[in-house]
Amino acid sequence: MSSFIIGAGLAAAAVAAGYQSMAPRGQWFGRTFTGLRPESRQLALSYDDGPNDPHTFRLLEVLAKHNVRATFFLVGRFAKQRPDIVRELTRAGHVVGNHTFSHPNLIFATAEQTRTELSECEQALSDAVGEHSRLFRPPFGGRRPSTLRIARALGLEPVMWSVTGWDWKGKPAEYVERRVVHQVHGGDVILLHDGSHAAFGADRSQSVVATDRLISRYKSEAYEFVTIPMMRDNGAPLEKGS
After folding, report:
1. What residues does each domain of the chain span?
2. Active-site residue numbers?
3. Which CATH code fits 2-234?
4. What is the mean pLDDT of each run of 10 residues along the chain (242 residues)?
């Protein structure tokens, strides 16, 4: 019986560890920024997997219309392919961050592979725009303790999210909007996508439409949209993740 209990306990611990390695707000493996306390009236829009033509440009138009600044976590190989889009992002006042060079799941990467992915993405961003944020978001949210240690050793700050629209599945804007609205409580970092890690040129038109609707909705409710650095520096962060 005791061996069964021990085995069950180890299995439960393994499941919990696996969950924490992917859970956006999981903090077992190291501190990551996921947003502010719910009483905050700030929201941060963030976009993964760009730059992407034409939808990053379409998104820039929507954000400019609403006078909103966002945070873009860019894939290095796409930034290297289209540095002009990266420059347009920073020229418009948006923040760009590191989303690795080729978008692997870092849970399965060696320390050397992780370091190379982060360093090569940093180089691609630096080549495009020079100085930029030191923010880093792991692809798929996947990380181990070593992932975060390597990121911090390179001077990068790990950032996750608290709300996602599941827009990478190609769902209609109405679906994406409902998913976000169901989760928002205030002080949230919202995850959407302007590109796809699978290929450059992915259709993210519905993410653009959903962005327009979400900004209109939450501005009418007196929320303020800020970049992740602004949120991090000016608000009271969550004390711990779930």
Report:
1. 2-234
2. 48, 197
3. 3.20.20.370
4. 43 40 67 92 98 98 98 98 98 98 97 98 98 97 96 98 95 98 97 97 98 98 97 67 38
